Amino acid sequence: MKDNDDMPGHLARRFQQIAVAVFHAEVDEAGYDLTPVQYAALAAISINPGIDQVTLAGLIAYDRTTITGVVDRLVQKGLLVRNASTKDRRARELQITGEGQKTLEGIAPAVEAAQQLMLRGLTAEEAEELLRLLRKAIAAGNELSRAPLREVPETGQSRPVK
After folding, report:
1. Residue 42: which of 97, 110, 116, 114 has the closest Cα?
2. pLDDT grade for 10, boundaries at 50, 70 and 90
3. Please, what sign has the CA dihedral across residues 105, 98, 70, 53?
4. Which run of H or E residues covers position 82?
5. Is the pLDDT of residue 153 over 80?
6. DSSP 8-state class, residue 26
7. What DSSP assignment string belongs to 30-69?
8. What is the mean pLDDT of the chain?
9. Helices 98-118 and 36-47 meet at what angle, rounded to 10?
10. For 16-65, how does the pLDDT look when each residue is reduced to its tens digit (9 = 90+)?
């Protein structure tokens, strides 16, 4: 039987626990009230204004059925608005508000500090190697996820989301 420290799933879960704790600590200290998923959603909508919730879920690799709650909370906080789609009456297009953009800009130093703190103990080269290996493992296992990362079509073409 393998020790937990030799199991990638266990290590990934532990790193996720650390990442979430560090994110919350840095963001709370900076005076913001956002979860990592709310931040990811807000940032994705800022880059892709007018996307719908299904597209948003794919962009941030989040479950389609629970993305509604994330969007609801961002709307309640005044950071997003839902507008009727011009292409599909059933869909709602998501737009970041002025307050949402201000929040993204204001929270950026805290988010960056959190990223650096998560990688403390690693040299710059080791941090880059960890990120490279994580990207490689995630790309290889993307379709195994309940919420795979998806691309956004842009004027008839697809582009990978970073």
Report:
1. 97
2. very high
3. negative
4. strand 80-84
5. no
6. H
7. TT----HHHHHHHHHHHHSTT--HHHHHHHTT--TTTHHH
8. 90
9. 120
10. 999 999 999 999 999 999 999 999 999 999 999 999 999 999 999 999 88
Any idea which of 3-12, 36-45, 74-83 has the lowest mean pLDDT?
3-12
- The position carrying tokens 């490279």 is 132
Task: Enter the tokens of residue 15.
Answer: 């790193």
**pTM for the full predicted model:** 0.86
Helical ranges in the chain per DSSP H: 8-29, 36-47, 53-59, 67-76, 98-118, 124-141
> How remote is the C-alpha of 69 from its chain's centroid?
15
Look at residue 151 in the predicted model and tell me its pLDDT. Answer: 78
CA distances (Å), origin 58, targets 42, 76, 141, 148? 14, 22, 15, 7
DSSP, res 2: -
Q: Output phi, psi for 84, to 5 deg.
A: -60, 135
Give the number of residues written for the chain: 162
Give the CA-trace dihedral at 36, 138, 121, 5, to 10 degrees.
110
Burial (0-12, 13-18, 19+ Cβ within 10 Å), 139: exposed
